[in-house]
């Protein structure tokens, strides 16, 4: 029987990162297809806070380890602990959400176990011993079906492609274990959080993004976002120009989003941007240039200046409410 | 200070990538190639560090003889010499990291700087594998640091900062919801994010000088690395096409469609 081990991620604020729930859903799907069971692992200064929440997600067991060293995540501290737990459990699959932490940690875990890894998987195919994964390449212009041939397989999971499950079933058994910590050559210095009253880009139901067409003026983009309770995104050009913070960037090298509604204002639609948003359910494009590539993926396109459209759109939506 | 940087040969990010009808590969005809943009940022950061701390930059690439183009480009930017691992055929991240480990053990750099991912495979793995294989610390997704220097000076100075005792580097990392700063003992692995720096153009004298800079040739066999892939790529496919949308004439129609048809507002 194969064991699927998913690493749950605790945010600096102590809460569970929502993408972990999507990763757990993917883990459950994988366990079902491979004919195995799902285990979770949480490394934390104080795991008790999240253990209960994780126990209700439908996993067989939640393994927790507590240590002051876990307060600030470091790959060098976490990887040996995850790898040795995986060995002890004889896990055949190890996964986590494709977050900054997941991407930093998992290859290091894989290296310890001489395991091959697939990044950003969007689908799990096959069954039993014949499991394959689908993952994007070339900025999402290509999707590859890959098979990992090492005894242990490692995957990072693109959260937007797996809906978080309702949980249910029996509560998982919470087992605490003693982590064997290794000396780390890396030490944590500081974390500067970018605070926002708006929802997280990757978790928002609606995203309003601005591009070069805003000429750096995001007031209208933000006003519409706030009316819709939306997150604010941006194209890479806009972030590179320093007009908005880096973590606004939607695209293959930024955040990958898949909201119910994506409104692209003044974004031309470079390949790399499209890769980050084209799984959105409904896409609206507003651009002065009728030839802009963004219109090829938009459900509704409006060829007009965004500074005329956005205030009118706000007014129109307000009337509905 | 000795710095090892990578220069993977990839399809130009501006080119349109299409899958062959049989799904065996991408259509390569007519494509242009260049250094992986994230690696190019790594070369630039290496050059800035070497300029500031009197060091040497060695650039490495793996592939057939065509990767010498990318090595020459890095040499033209200012790298001192190049290592070419001559290998054709499939190669996965375990194989790449295994080869880079051997090159690093041979060259003994203080720092290896790689792109956080290559824009073809998009795996984002090699730096982390390499750090673990070498038993070194890692600082992935290195980004810009705040600096009190003038704009012009800032644009030239390295963002990876050597500590006063010269035994560690401080790196600002782009992570979810903010920026994390870590301090890593040397030797260490750093992977670059987009905003770390703006790579320089190769100057004409740089291009001329690059022609006479040495490129050392190695092979996986000589390095003693088994590069048989552990990742089998079974099939490539184009992403599912979105159904063609419509252009709406005005905002009122847009609101009506979003409300009644898409039911999202």
User: What's the structural domain tally of chain B?
Assistant: 1
- Contiguous low-pLDDT stretches of chain A (5 residues minimum) are none
Radius of gyration of chain B: 21 Å
* Alpha-carbon Rg of chain A, integer: 21 Å
* Helix/strand order of chain B: EEEHEHEHEHEHEEEEHEHEEH
| Backbone structural class of chain A | alpha/beta
In CATH, the topology of chain B is named: Rossmann fold
Strand content of chain B: 25-35%
Q: Can you put this structure into words, describing what you see?
A:
Chain A: Belongs to the ETF alpha-subunit/FixB family. Chain A: It comes from Corallococcus sicarius. Chain A: GO terms for molecular function: electron transfer activity; flavin adenine dinucleotide binding. The complex is a heterodimer of chains A (321) and B (265). Chain A has 321 residues and is of the alpha/beta class. In chain A, 28% of the residues lie in helices and 28% in strands. In chain A, the strands form 3 sheets. In chain A, strands 5-9-4-1-2-3-10 form a 7-stranded parallel β-sheet, with helices on both faces. A 5-stranded parallel β-sheet of chain A has the order 13-12-14-15-16. The longest helix of chain A has 17 residues, at 18-34. Chain B has 265 residues and is α/β, with parallel strands linked by helices. Chain B has a single domain, classed as HUPs (Rossmann fold), CATH 3.40.50. Chain B has 8 helices and 14 strands. In chain B, the strands form 3 sheets. Chain B has a 7-stranded parallel β-sheet, sandwiched between helices. In chain B, strands 8-9-10 form a 3-stranded antiparallel β-sheet, with no helix packed on it. In chain B, a hairpin with a 2-residue loop joins strand 9 (168-175) and strand 10 (178-185). In chain B, helix 2 crosses helix 6 (204-210). Classes of the chains: A alpha/beta (321), B alpha/beta (265). Chains A and B meet through helix 3, helix 4, strand 5, strand 7 and strand 8 of A and helix 3, helix 4, strand 7, strand 9 and strand 10 of B. Strand 11 of chain A pairs antiparallel with strand 10 (178-185) of chain B.
């Amino acid at each position: 029987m194969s064991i699927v081990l998913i690493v749950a991620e605790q945010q600096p604020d102590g809460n569970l990162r929502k993408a972990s729930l999507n990763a757990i859903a993917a883990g459950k799907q994988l366990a079902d297809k491979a004919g195995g069971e799902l285990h979770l692992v949480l490394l934390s200064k104080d795991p008790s806070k999240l253990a209960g929440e994780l126990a209700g997600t439908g996993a067989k067991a939640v393994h927790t380890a507590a240590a002051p060293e876990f307060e600030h995540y470091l790959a060098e501290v976490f990887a040996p602990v995850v790898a040795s737990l995986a060995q002890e459990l004889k896990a055949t699959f190890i996964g986590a959400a494709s977050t900054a932490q997941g991407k930093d940690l998992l290859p290091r875990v894989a290296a310890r176990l001489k395991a091959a890894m697939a990044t950003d998987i969007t689908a799990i195919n096959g069954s039993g011993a014949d499991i394959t994964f689908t993952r994007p390449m070339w900025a999402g212009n290509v999707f590859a079906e890959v098979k990992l041939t090492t005894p242990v397989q490692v995957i990072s999971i693109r959260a937007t492609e797996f809906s978080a499950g309702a949980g249910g079933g029996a509560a998982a058994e919470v087992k605490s274990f003693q982590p064997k910590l290794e000396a780390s050559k890396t030490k944590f210095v500081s974390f500067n959080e970018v605070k926002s009253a708006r929802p997280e880009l990757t978790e928002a139901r609606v995203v309003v993004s601005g591009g070069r067409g805003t000429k750096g003026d995001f007031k209208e983009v933000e006003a519409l976002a706030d009316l819709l309770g939306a997150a604010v995104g941006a194209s890479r050009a806009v972030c590179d120009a320093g007009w908005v913070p880096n973590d606004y960037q939607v695209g293959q090298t930024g955040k990958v989003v898949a909201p119910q509604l994506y409104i692209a204002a003044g974004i031309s639609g470079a390949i790399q941007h499209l890769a980050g948003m084209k799984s959105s359910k409904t896409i609206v494009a507003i651009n002065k240039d009728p030839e802009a590539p963004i219109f090829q993926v938009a459900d509704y396109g409006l060829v007009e200046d965004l500074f005329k459209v956005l205030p009118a759109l706000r007014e129109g939506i307000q009337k509905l409410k | 200070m000795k710095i090892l940087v990578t220069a993977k040969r990839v399809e130009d990010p501006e080119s349109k990538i299409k899958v062959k009808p049989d799904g065996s590969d991408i259509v390569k005809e007519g494509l242009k190639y260049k250094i992986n943009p994230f690696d190019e940022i790594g070369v630039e950061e290496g050059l800035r560090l070497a300029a500031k701390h009197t060091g040497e930059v060695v650039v490495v690439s793996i592939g057939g003889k065509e990767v010498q183009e990318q090595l020459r480009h890095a040499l033209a930017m200012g790298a001192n010499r190049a290592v070419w691992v001559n290998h054709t055929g499939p190669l996965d991240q375990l194989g790449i990291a295994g080869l880079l480990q051997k090159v690093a053990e041979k060259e003994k750099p203080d720092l290896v700087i790689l792109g956080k991912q290559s824009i073809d495979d998009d795996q984002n793995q090699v730096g982390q594998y390499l750090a673990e294989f070498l038993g070194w610390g890692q600082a992935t997704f290195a980004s810009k640091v705040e600096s009190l220097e003038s704009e012009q000076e800032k644009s030239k100075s390295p963002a990876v900062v050597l500590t006063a005792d010269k035994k560690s580097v401080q790196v600002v990392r782009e992570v979810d919801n903010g920026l994390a700063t870590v301090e890593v003992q040397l030797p260490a692995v750093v992977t670059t994010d987009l905003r770390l720096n703006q790579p320089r153009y190769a100057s004409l004298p740089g291009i001329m000088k690059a022609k006479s800079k040495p490129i050392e040739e190695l092979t996986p066999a000589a390095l003693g690395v088994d590069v048989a892939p552990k990742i089998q790529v079974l099939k490539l496919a184009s992403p599912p096409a979105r159904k063609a949308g419509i252009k709406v004439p005005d905002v009122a129609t847009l609101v009506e469609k979003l409300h009644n048809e898409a039911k999202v507002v």
